[in-house]
């Protein structure tokens, strides 16, 4: 009989309640300052990260090897036979390859590592869909076969007050970022089919960027039923206002406000607001 475990990395930004609900194990990215290091979601919160950004912009690195090893060994001791691992885009992080190399040391586990080709909360949305399948006693092979379809139906969009954090982390060219900020352009970023960030749309100024986010959301809702998450990175009131503005749409099956985690926030900075949409069709 299959006993299937589910693992994702901390870029997923899932709340602890959601992790607990679907029994999802978390691989924490490291958040590294000049004189100290933290484990995302374990020893640092996004609120703490935002307060530290006033003095220093840290870097992020792969999930801690020792911590990840303990998770796999605990699964074996608990009698798990199969494990599904869902990661941030392999073109944005080495997490996929790192966990693949680690899993090779545990032949007693039959594993599948899925590259979401996306970044941030969409990783979490894909993971929760896998969690629902496990809860419904779907077998390992069938879940694997459904993951690509789930990925295609999952979409993420995010906009920022400043591009300096993306520039610092090398996620956007310094010249392009400087030009955008000079013109007060607020790009709305998404992930392409290769898992790389790109400018899905542009708006002039903060207010118009949020209007554009709403328009993007409506373009999906006009086509059919969707699960929607509003993503908040130290942009509390604007995120709440957006949720209130759209929550009564008849094609929203469920909507919630979610917090952008510390690892993601390193690259987005405060004042980030985004969407994750899952097409339920």
UniProtKB/TrEMBL annotation:
Q: Taxonomically, which superkingdom?
A: Bacteria
Q: Which residues form a coiled coil?
A: none
InterPro entries listed in its UniProt record: DegV, DegV_C, DegV_domain_contain
Keyword list (alphabetical) reads: Lipid-binding
> Pfam families under this entry?
DegV (PF02645)
Say yes or no: keyword Aminoacyl-tRNA synthetase present. no
A GO molecular function term, named singly, is: lipid binding
What this protein is reported to do is described as: May bind long-chain fatty acids, such as palmitate, and may play a role in lipid transport or fatty acid metabolism.
Protein name per the record: EDD domain protein, DegV family
Q: Which organism is it from?
A: Clostridium uliginosum
